[in-house]
Every structure is written in C-alpha cells, then in structure tokens.
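Reader question, answered in our methods column.
A reader sent in the components of a multi-part assembly and asked whether the whole thing could be modeled at once rather than chain by chain. We filled in our standard form and ran it. Here is what they sent:
COMPLEX SIZE: four components
ENTRIES:
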Amino acid sequence: MLNIRTDLAVEVSENYKKINKKEIDGIILEEKELENIKITSIRVLNEEGSKKLGKPIGNYITLDISENTVYDSELMEEVALVGGQILRKLIGTDEEKTALVVGLGNWKVTPDSLGPKVMEKIMITRHLKNLMPDQFDEEINSVCAIAPGVLGITGIETFEIIKGIVQKIKPSVVICVDSLASRKVERINKTIQISDTGISPGAGVKNNRMKINEENLGVKVIAIGVPTVVDASTIVNDSMDLIIDELLNQTEKGSIFYKELIELDKEEKNRLIKELLEPYLGQLMVTPKEVDLVIDGFSKIISKSINIGIQPNLDVEEINKFMN
Amino acid sequence: MLNIRTDLAVEVSENYKKINKKEIDGIILEEKELENIKITSIRVLNEEGSKKLGKPIGNYITLDISENTVYDSELMEEVALVGGQILRKLIGTDEEKTALVVGLGNWKVTPDSLGPKVMEKIMITRHLKNLMPDQFDEEINSVCAIAPGVLGITGIETFEIIKGIVQKIKPSVVICVDSLASRKVERINKTIQISDTGISPGAGVKNNRMKINEENLGVKVIAIGVPTVVDASTIVNDSMDLIIDELLNQTEKGSIFYKELIELDKEEKNRLIKELLEPYLGQLMVTPKEVDLVIDGFSKIISKSINIGIQPNLDVEEINKFMN
Amino acid sequence: MLNIRTDLAVEVSENYKKINKKEIDGIILEEKELENIKITSIRVLNEEGSKKLGKPIGNYITLDISENTVYDSELMEEVALVGGQILRKLIGTDEEKTALVVGLGNWKVTPDSLGPKVMEKIMITRHLKNLMPDQFDEEINSVCAIAPGVLGITGIETFEIIKGIVQKIKPSVVICVDSLASRKVERINKTIQISDTGISPGAGVKNNRMKINEENLGVKVIAIGVPTVVDASTIVNDSMDLIIDELLNQTEKGSIFYKELIELDKEEKNRLIKELLEPYLGQLMVTPKEVDLVIDGFSKIISKSINIGIQPNLDVEEINKFMN
Amino acid sequence: MLNIRTDLAVEVSENYKKINKKEIDGIILEEKELENIKITSIRVLNEEGSKKLGKPIGNYITLDISENTVYDSELMEEVALVGGQILRKLIGTDEEKTALVVGLGNWKVTPDSLGPKVMEKIMITRHLKNLMPDQFDEEINSVCAIAPGVLGITGIETFEIIKGIVQKIKPSVVICVDSLASRKVERINKTIQISDTGISPGAGVKNNRMKINEENLGVKVIAIGVPTVVDASTIVNDSMDLIIDELLNQTEKGSIFYKELIELDKEEKNRLIKELLEPYLGQLMVTPKEVDLVIDGFSKIISKSINIGIQPNLDVEEINKFMN
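And here is the structure of the entire assembly that came back:
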C-alpha cells in the first residue's frame, strides 16, 4: 500500500525552521522561483544534517506547482521539461547509460497506481538495442522498465524483485517512481520530489536491508515521488490545530480555558488521536475527488521528465512524438 | 458527483432518538436481527413523520451487514437474497412487470461507480421479449437498464434523461442504484438502504422537479443506496467529538475548562469546521483503502438482489447461473 | 455489437467504378490530396445516386490517413483540424447551437468502445450555460453528450434513448460517433467517414423507423465512423481473391484450370464462404493487435474534431488546453 | 505479444495420427471422458517421441471443455476442480512447498491478459508466513506471484526477470500461465493445456537459453496455457481447406480441375498464403467477439485450479471463500 511513512524532505525542513527559527545545520537549501514552478533544492551534506532532517545524505529537489497543472497541457509540458533537466543533472550525461525504471505501487488502487502508470509511458529501447545493435548508436541510452507490484499482491519484497533484475541486467542507474503520503493536505496534487538517496516501498519490512538505494543495489538510485493521499489521522490532526488556533484567538488570554488549550500540547493531542481514532480511521484514506484524473496527469508529466532525463541526445519534439 | 447530501433515514432516526429520548411521531420503526444482517424498516406514515425525519412519506429499509461481507461469498449470497425478498415486496409480484434499472453515478470515479457497475450485471430481457414474444411467457418480466452518467460529463440533468426514456418505454417500475455519502464512518461498507420514495442524483439542481420519484416520473421508483464515502469535514467533526468526550472524561467535573468544553456546543463547532475547513477540505473525500474491491463486491450483491426481486418466477439457481 | 453491415460510401463507389468503369450517376465525387490526408467527398444528389450507392441522399466525406497517425501526435493534430473544419461546414457556424454528441457502441468491448471514449472527451458546456447564463455569451455553443450503450446490455433500442433525450433537450444538431466494420482490411486504422445522413446502430432492429437520422429525430444528424474491425469472413474472402489472382498468374491462360478458376466467380465463392464458414467464423472478429492503442488514438482525434467543429468561436489552443 | 508459435501438443498429435494413421512412437496417449470435460494426457517418453511431437519429454494434459463453460458457474467450478487435481499430481503433495506463480502476457492487450489476470487472483501467503511464521503451520504452502510484463513494454527478456526472482526466493515450483495461439479456431475458448515441460514467452528471442523450464531455472516448471487467439493467416488457411474440400466434392473426380486442386498441396498453399498475405494480415488477430468476458472467465477457472493445486491441505470451500 501507500508509502505513508515517507515525509517530504521539504516538509521536515520547513517544520524545523518554524520551530527552531533557523535552517538545519549541515544542509544547504536553495530556492528558485520560475513563473509557475518553485524549485527547492535541499542538499544534505553530512551526518549532522542527515540526522536532523531524518533523511540520508544526498540531494532532494522539490517542485511546487499549481494545482491546476494537470488541467493545463502547457503547464504540464513546462513542469515535465524542468523535471527532465533535473534528472539529466542527477543521472549525468557523460557516457552511455542503461537505465531501469521501476514503477512502484499497486495498479489496482487508484491513488497508488502512479508508478505503474508512469512505467507504461517510458520509451523502452533496451530490447531494440540488443536486437539491432547496428541501428542504434551510443547516443541513444538503453532503457528498460518494470512494475513489480506490491508485497500484498506478490508476496515478494519489492526490493528482492528489483535486486534480482539488477543483478541480471546491470543497469547504470535505477529510477523509481512512487505515490507518497504527505503530512499536509496542501501538498496533494502540487508537489514532485526528486532525490538521489533511494526509497522504501510502502509495505515493505522496515529494515534498512530492504531499502532501494545505492548501498543495497550497488547502482545509483533516483527516486521520484508525488504525494497523492493524506492519512485520515493527519487531516484530523491538521484540522484540530486550525480549530484550536481559532479558539485561542477567540479566548481571553490568561483565562483558564486559554491555558488549558495551550497545555493541550502536541504530544498529548497526537496520543489522543492515535489511541482514539486509529481503530476508527485506520482503514480510510483521504484523496482528491478527481484522483483518477490527477494520477493520470502526473503520470504523463513524470514519464516525460524521465524520457527527457535519460535521453540527453534526443530533443523534446522527438520524445513528444513518441509519447503521444 | 456523489450524493453527499443524502442522509440515511436510519441515521436521522437514531439521532432524533438520542436527542429526544423517543421515536419520531408519525413513523413506525421495526428491527429484525438475522444471524448476519440487521434489518431496520422505517415507515413514514404522515406529514408529521416526514417533516421530522426530513424524508418523504414511504418505506425505508436498511440492511446493516458485517464489513467482512464483501470478502465472504456466503455472506454476500445471504445479503443478496434478503435484498431480493425486500425488493419483491416493494415491486409487487401480482402481475407482469416492465422494470427500468438506472445505474446512477460516474463510472470514471471509483467510489461513485456503484450504479454503473450494478447496471452491467442486470439480466436484460426486454429486447428478447420484444424480438421473440412467443419464446417467453408472461412469467418472465421485461427488464432494461441504463447508466445515464452524471451532469458533469453529460451536461444533461439525469432526471431529463430518465424522464425521456420512461416516456418512450413506459416501465411499470424504475429501480435506481446510487453511491451515497454517510455522516458516519461506521456506515461505510456496511449498509444498504432500500426505499420507495425516490432519489436526488448528487450533482443535480436541487429543485424538487428534478427528483427521480413517482410524482415526477409517473411510475413507482425504488432507490437502492450504499454509503461509499464520508465527507472529509464529517470525519473531522466525528473525530473532534470523540476527543472532546475523552477530554471531558479526563477533566474534573465542575472545573472551568470542563464548562467551556461543554459549552463548545455542536453548532459552534460545526460553524468553526465549516468556515475554517471548507476551503481546505472541500475537494477531498474519505474512502476505504480497498474501495475498488468494496464497490465490486456491493455491485454483485445489489445486482443479484435486483435480479431476484424483479423475477419472482425464477429461482435463485437460474439467476446465479446467469450472473456468474 | 459492431455495426458490421455499414459499408463506407467510398468503398461502394470504388467497387462500382471498378466493375462499371465509370462513376455512379447522380453522385459528385471530389478528391483532394493534402500531404498526409486524402479527402474524398461524395455528394449523393438524387434518388438514382442514392439507389446505386445504396446510401441516402447527402454528403459523405472520407479521410484516408496513414496507419501511423495514431503513433504521431503531429499527424493526429493535423487530422483533427481537418475533421474539425469539415464538421464546421456540416454543422454551420451561422447561429447559436445546441449539440448533442452521442457515443454509440459498447464500452465493454474494446473495438466497439470508440463512441463512449470520444464522448468522455467532449467539452461539455450545456449545464454551465444553464446554471450561469450570464457568464457565457452566445459565442459559446451549448454542448451535451451521452453514451447510451447497446441493445444487448440495455434492452432498449438506442434510437428510443436518443429520441427521448432529443425531445427533452431539443438540440439543433446530433453528432453520432461509432465503430464501423469495413469490407477491406486496408481501411482498418486508416479511415474516418463523416456524413450528414444518419446512422443505424449495429444491433438495432433493421427497420427504417429506428435509424438515427434527421427524418426520424427531426433534427440534423451528423455521423462519424471509423472502421475498427473486419468480419472474419471478409478477410477470408479477400485472401482467396489474392490467391486466385496469383494462381491465375501462374496458370497458363486458356488451360482448363484457368477457365475453372475464372468461372469460380464471386457469387459462387461468396456462397461457399457463407455456407461453409458462417458457423465456424460467426463469433470471431479480426482486429489490429494494437486495438486498444488504436481506439485510444482515434478517440482523441475525433473528440478534438468535434470540439473544434462545434465551437467555431474558440481557437484550437483553447480547445487543446481543455482537452489535454 | 501472444505466443503464436506455441502449438498444443494435442493438436500436433491429432495431425500426426490423421496423416500417419497411427500414434506417434514414444508417446503414451490416454483419453478420459467426464460428463462435461474430455481429458487427454500425452506422456512423451523419450527422444523419439519428443522429436516427432516437436515437444520436450514430459507430460501434456489437455482439458477440452464446452464453449459455454465461461457462461455457467457450475461448469466453471467443475473445470477448476479437475484442473486443481491435475496440478496437485504434477506439483506433488508430499512436502512443504514454495510456489512462484508467473502471469505471462501483456495486461494492456485483452487477449494477452490472461496471465496477469490469473496472477491477481492467487492466494498469496509467502509474506504472511515470513512475517508470522508461528501463525501458519507447514500445512499451508508458501505462495507468491508476479506479472513480469512482456519484452515490448519492459525491454527485459521475461526469462531474465523470472530467473532473477527465482535466484532470490528459491521456490520449489514455478507455475506459468499464458495465452496461447491455436492453429484451430475450434480450440479458442475451449481448451486448457497443462504441462510440466516449460514455456517460451511469445516475444522472446527464440534461443533455448531463454525458455522458462526446469533446465534453465533449476526448479520444476508447470505451464498452463489457454488458446485465446488464432493467427489471421491460420484462419485463412483453414477456410481455404474447407473450400477446396467442398470444390473437390463438387468436381468430377479425374477431371483436370480436380487434379490441379489436389495438386495445390499444402506446402504450396502455405507458401502462397505466407507470401501474399503476411504484409496484409501480419498485424491482425482473430478473437472471439466476447473476448473480454472469455478471458475473465478463464482467469477465474485457472486461478482457482492453481489455488487448489498448490494448497492440498485446504478444502475447496475455504478457497472459494477467499477467492470470491
């Protein structure tokens, strides 16, 4: 199922700054505003940064886009191009590559089907290059792809499947795509995170051995994630914060009610929500009403970014023609 | 889109009793407990009952079933049979019938696709009876079906489409199936409501003229609804109630905080939630994670109930054989 | 099921010319070659032309396109534009219109799902114009759409459904889209026929009363059809012709075998194929292996043509933005 | 794409007998007629049998069933049980097993989607046994499954993917399910072949190294295949045979035309069909019109057979309950 434990690096960093009034030491954060896209790059430099961010050393690039993006083909094209350029930088354009694209997630559950939907739109070249090596020069990279399914429907850890394939075909880079869960409703539909530090498939046993990353696979791993659901308890939590803030505004400062509300601190509230609501909310998820359309749109954007990113010697027109 | 304004009669009645410590006047409520199904029949007798229940005069039968039903074929069969018997009573078995089954909802949005999915499993006989009248005796009723789509994708009020068809084919009964929204998370997956008072398709203009009922169509209308989503603001509301109750338990009675909490009455809370959260939650819905499977299961149960209900002269084996 | 009796006007005309060495009297045939599209317009002027062509008086425009069209987004755009211009001419651009788009066919059978797939991509405006008449000027036409299903799954003649809706909403034009069967394998994937003489849904009772045309609906009817299957017996027939031709080439002219082959005339061959092969081929259809992709591509082309054709005051960019 | 080169062993054997008037040496053929199922077991004993049959040494069991099977749930249950018993014999019931079920084929192309559809209905237990070893005794076998896709959409030989996974999870048996092409139209919908000699995925490079069998995988391989398409050239060929036979019947024996027809021998005819028709028929396939429904029915039958076959200690009721 969905990868609900994965936070966006940018969310953690924002939270840290809000609480501590400063950036995390050991990370470099850069922001760039395009007309329709905000790019936030977080570079985790060392163990200190990694510990405080709760994320491995490496690069985390977040694209914040308008929620209308998936309804506007020009915006989609723009975002796909920006994503493609970022991927070219992360993958490298120096030498011939073999890329394995992995569409993580469950194709039977709409909000978890982003990965498999992206996988189906990738320009696959590996079998053609193998079959007719003379017809392709080294300018075209070799690309293959798989949608391994999820533990609940295969009974096999996703990592085991990927590892088996990587050992057979020895790619120079693995690109994973997955649906994420966000802690913030506002991220849904509006964020793409690209990182070079790997990913933990949602339902996997949470030991480090099973993480899909360079350390475990022996090959560079790039992960692309889009938040498509919020946990039901997250949205309750957020809503209560909004309401308590409003109550505090309305309540005379210094009154006993004010003090008690203030004292209703985060931890206590989280515990209450967890204990009381888990049995009641556990099987529910919160998604946009138009989730089918949103997933479809993001799958087009991200597959185009990957096709651009992995084929630096093709121009976008050629890729567009192929992808239509 | 989903019919989020439709409450289940049984919920309204329960709420009324909780607050007023008595049943609504002008309604008769009967409960019957089978091993795996609880049947609640509410009969609204007169204007007084109708006004207090907020529902037209007529019959409302609710089946409460285990949430495991859709994972257990025997339970499914049992529920389908009970539903079929109820439908036979509402439709009547006295004379030859022509039934039009209407699968309301949007087939592109999973939690709203119950109606169209049911429609596809109905035993269609009308064209065969028309084509080969000698081969069918009057014991087989004439059945046809349509999935008219929703206003957002057709641009036509669902009522207009139904009315046009009814005028052409003059059925003796119209059976509508729709996804509902519930006010209670606990209803999701676990309730089927059958009534003979009509239904308002979700996105329709909310004037009475557009309601799909006997008054407007000139023919008996039976509606079957299953709650498949909860509004995001509903779940926040319910969660806050749980938490306030827990806080009250933990707080010394008579203390000021206790009093303030008590005073944080329902209306105020609803207003806060509405004002603060509408922009934030408005485009979200809450569904079971397994919504695809749940909708599929309910579409099997309800289509079988309808096939049984409209063909009192066929035995269940014949219907099962057809439906597999 | 599929409309296998519908021949393309252009095929009949070609056959006639081949046999009779001249054009049919009473029709005007014009051809125009663009770089990637051949446009053949047949205008049936009078009863004589109608009888010989076996088609009602009116216009039949056929676009012959490359079979690669659906793999090339630029070609698709080009074809969509040409189709849009033809539709503008047939619909007329003089005054405000209300259009009803009808997606004929069965969404559960891939090669028959073109109509429903097109219907889902139409720019629906009617409900918005009704709801907010001040926000739309008369330059935007009112568009609504329906996918009525097929007789086998609804039990209702498609004509009855359309007629019922037309009487309610009184459109100024009805645009029907359907999958066709071709007599020629070469037409599959490569032809779009647009006519203003109506259409007979495939499985309908074949009486004239049920034809979806201006005479029966009281409103102009434009039909757009794409051949997506060939009858199994057609392909056997065509193949035998090829083989007999080849045998004739190899056989000494004047020999007895040659004469017998020549005498194995069309009628005899057709009778043999019909008698011998019907039971054996009756339930089979022949489609391109990539039928899912082909249908998807044509649904994009045709929905864009319709969106362009029915909204002469919008430019293509606006329509593209909407449709993406 | 579809595995069009795979012939059914039973077809080859029938052909041999027809031509040679005797059974192939080195094979044992047994037939058993149940009320609704004919079971043909071919055991290839040695190299001679293998060479003549063109199939490896091993067992080939064919179930011939009524074409109405998928419309009748009782027949489906019956066939599933028979299939389950055959699989129990081939898999063995002596000791604890780990089974990997492989759903071969392309889920995007309906007639090729049988394997992936079966895969989704398999009772997956491996992850549960790994997670909670104490809750499962050794009576429940460990089952996992994968749908690896096809070369055209992954760029990876299916064999490479399977081999990689087999090396990681070391199953005791691999069960592959695939759509087949038949040489005979009559086989479509009506045949299930089970063998223990492996399978060659359709689009794979046709070298022996890539065959999914015990020799290459190091573990027993059971293959289950259902013919779902006929090659377009096959159906032309068969049709011509029917017609030539009919012409011969009508033609005076001893006449020149008769002789020439007789001389139009198989090889020549095949060459003609191949040369003349390949470019014309190459991209076409022939399927039943109801292919969606047929594939769905067979996926239920075969998944139930596998669930029964791999869990000899569960009774059918338990499996039915799970599978519904």
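What stands out: The interface with chain C takes residues 1-2, 108-110, 185-186, 188, 230, 232, 235-236, 238-240, 242-243, 246-247, 255-257, 260, 264, 269, 272-273, 276-277, 280-281, 283-292 of chain D (CB under 8 Å). Strands of chain D lie at 27-33, 37-44, 58-65, 98-103, 142-146, 173-182, 191-195, 220-231, 284-288.
Send us your own complexes using the same form.
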